[in-house]
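User: Hi! I'm working on a homework problem where we have to compare a predicted structure to a textbook description. Could you give me the structure for the chain below?
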Amino acid sequence: MSYELFIATRYLKSKRRTGFISLISYISIAGVAIGVAALIIVLSVMNGFETEVRDRIIGADAHIRLGTYHENGIQEVDSIIQQIEGIRHISGISPYIMEKGLIREGGRTEGVIVRGIDPATVGTVSELPETIISGGLHLGRVDVTGRENLPGLVLGRYLADRLYATLGDTVVLFSPGSGGLFSQPRAKQFHVAGVFETGLYEYDDVFAYISIPEAQDLFRMPDRVTGLEIKLDDIDRSAEVKAAIQEVLGYPYFPRTWHEMHRNLFNWMKIEKWMGFIILSLIIMVAAFNIISSLIMVVLEKKKEIGILKSMGATNAGIRRIFIYEGLAVGVIGTAIGIIMGWGLCFLQLKYHFFSLPPDIYFINALPILMKASDFVMIAVIALLLCFLASVYPAHKAATLVPVEAIRYE
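Assistant: Happy to help. Predicted structure tokens:
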């Protein structure tokens, strides 16, 4: 052990004549620990929310959507599927139609986003079949009491609530006219075959699913679909697969990844995460100022000892290292305690769900937690860096003391 580290350890452990200096050191350690723990908890919660939202959005949607630049739809569906189904990491492909319309049940009318799907393949690209909470994904035509041979329709939970629609009820879908402002809208009757709930209000409040043939008839698209939904075995390779699809198909086909389709949401969540990190780092900065004040007072208290060390041959660099080591020791102890506190609280939340959330508002029943090793490393590095910077000025003042002046009046 070097003499600088030995002396720094003695200074940290010693009972100083001024107990107030020791108190400030303990407050500095507590400040660093609280700041580190707060950062770990907040970033873990933000990671948890981001993962929950991403998983639910991807569960209700595809990893990649393939359409055309001018949104004219895709006609040669089978041919396109054959061309891209061999691309690596593609695990499922399903055609879809998506258009806006109106839905009416009794005297109630609501806006709706209608999605035409293929029930046989939709399960390979989304979790829609697993989100059905009532009825089933039965979109074919069946005989309904009082109404013959009506096709099926699946509604989002909140849309069904607003329409007061239950299983077996007859609803009417309207498509906007395609022949101009005064063109006649097209209408079709459906029976409610099922109700789904994804946990995302934006989906459950406006979406209705029907079969592709019925959607083609309703929206006058007899020979085409809006596009293809594609699922991957690894969502982190979506950009790579998108490039491969573009290379195979070329213009006018235009694939979009899940991140591009929800860019604003995920960018906002990333900005929020970094803003939280920066704001909570101020707690560690307050502790760093405490380190500065405590080290300056230590320099004043140990003025005689510093003078003696320099008269015995200690260099300015050696004196500087003593106080930098002492400041870093405060940082290391505080960071270690903060990491243990942060990890412990996050682990307890994961295991026991102390902090619950109302599921009817937040779509989850407990505060989500996702701890990442990279966050722990980044927080520890930032905390130690701030503590190091806080030690530089007091260490410099100690190193520039003149030995004669330091011991003249002692």
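For your comparison, note the following. The chain has a mean pLDDT of 84. The chain has two domains: 3-57+265-407, 73-251. Good luck with the assignment!
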